[in-house]
Specification:
single chain; mainly alpha; 2 domains; 15 helices; 66% helix; elongated; binds zinc ion
Length: 254
């Protein structure tokens, strides 16, 4: 581009040396910008030309968030060997608010479903940890699936939780918690859905708290946690129905 055409196009009066500086800076930037960012270039043009620029930015932000959710969903599908048809994502995202008012639990489940929990495999990837070994068993790679379901320590915890739910007559004796229900990817829809989905949500959070404290998840510690949550939620009369089936066990603990 000549000096004259540059000045006419951008209505900027620069000296020849400044123009060479601008051209070489643009070339350098083009080399440095990753290919993924190049797709945003057309957005800049649209943004500059538009009279409703804030709407364009809003739509872009929404679509980016949508893409991120989609990639999380794809990763979960892969993890549980599932397809789109078998996961009702709308229901999955609504489950936590349907069974608790605790903002901490709702926030935790959001981070879990959006895969924003920093496991050791992630910490190793970003250079914070040297290894990706599981905090619980020290043998396997710690990713979300391993930590929350496949680890031998976690498996024992879920088995004990199933047995306890059976003893509360919330689960039938021939039923154990399945992977999808336990992780909240296929929420329970039985008569005890409120209790089962709530317990699974609390159990996931318990596993995560244990991981942060470098302790194994145990049924005993889970009961202590459940009792603590019961004391907090018991102040609201609308929660009575949810807690009723748990009360005989909780009374034994206290
Ligand atoms: Zn493990």
């Amino acid at each position: 581009m000549s000096l004259e055409s540059f000045q006419n196009k951008y209505e900027l009066h620069v000296k020849p040396l400044s123009l060479f500086g601008i051209i070489s800076a643009v070339k350098l930037l083009q080399r440095q910008i990753p290919k993924t960012q190049l797709k945003h270039e057309s957005l800049f043009d649209t943004f500059l030309k538009s009279q409703k620029s804030s709407r364009i930015v809003y739509q872009k932000l929404i679509s980016d968030k949508g893409e991120r959710s989609l990639s999380c969903q794809e990763k979960w599908h892969k993890d549980i060997s599932s397809t789109n048809e078998t996961v009702d994502w709308r229901k999955v995202y609504q489950t936590s608010t349907a069974c608790t008012r605790s903002s901490k639990l709702i926030d935790f489940n959001f981070r879990f479903l959006h895969r924003r929990l920093a496991t050791n495999s992630y910490l190793q990837k970003i250079g914070i940890r040297e290894d990706n070994n599981c905090i619980f068993c020290h043998n396997e790679k710690e990713d979300l699936m391993h930590l929350f379901w496949q680890c031998e320590k976690t498996t024992i915890f879920w088995q004990n939780l199933s047995l306890w739910l059976q003893s509360c007559q919330i689960l039938t004796t021939e039923n154990n918690l399945h992977l999808e229900t336990a992780l909240g990817l296929k929420p329970d829809s039985s008569n005890f859905k409120l209790q089962i989905n709530f317990c699974c949500l609390l159990a996931k959070q318990h596993i995560w708290i244990c991981r942060l404290r470098e302790l194994h998840p145990t049924q005993n510690n889970f009961f202590i946690y459940l009792t603590h949550i019961h004391l907090l939620e018991n102040k609201t009369p609308s929660n009575t129905k949810k807690w009723k089936p748990f009360l005989p066990s909780l009374n034994q603990v206290s």
